[in-house]
Amino acid sequence: MIEPAIEVSRVDQLTKIDTALFDDGIIKKMNGNTIPFDSASFDYVINNQVMEHVENLGTVLAEIQRVLKSDGVVLSFISQ
């Protein structure tokens, strides 16, 4: 079997996290204002229907920019 060439991390705001839903990565609880990872540590940041619920959008976007590598990509899904 070939090992994947990526490492997956997940940051979740849920109060209860079912680890069975996410077997292959690191789960950390946070609120988005301070993402608990080093600067320039992600190639991709994906968020799914989160931004419309964020109180401090500017702060969260700045944190995403901080942890994203200079050639990184953000993919956001936002509900209507």
Question: In words, what does this structure look like?
Answer:
The protein contains one helix and four strands. The protein has a single domain (8-77), classed as 3-Layer(aba) Sandwich (Rossmann fold). α1 links the parallel β3 and β4. It has a two-stranded parallel sheet with strand order 1-2. With 80 residues, it is α/β, with parallel strands linked by helices. It starts with 7 loop residues before the first strand and ends with a strand. The radius of gyration is 13 Å and the shape is globular.
Summary tags:
Rossmann fold, 80 residues, 34% strand, 14% helix
Rg over C-alpha atoms, rounded to the nearest angstrom: 13 Å
Largest sheet: 2 strands, parallel
Distance between the termini: 42 Å
List segments where confidence is low: pLDDT < 50 over at least 5 consecutive residues: none
In total, the number of strands is: 4
What is the CATH superfamily classification?
Vaccinia Virus protein VP39
What is the mean predicted local confidence, pLDDT? 77
Strand line-up across the major sheet: 1-2
Known CATH architecture: 3-Layer(aba) Sandwich
Determine the oligomeric state from the structure.
Answer: single chain
Order of helices and strands: EEEHE
Structural class, from secondary structure content? Answer: alpha/beta
Structure, briefly:
The protein is of the alpha/beta class and 80 residues long. The protein is 14% helix and 34% strand.
Write the layout of secondary structure elements.
Elements: E1 8-12, E2 25-29, E3 42-48, H1 57-67, E4 68-77
Parallel strand pairs: 1-2, 3-4
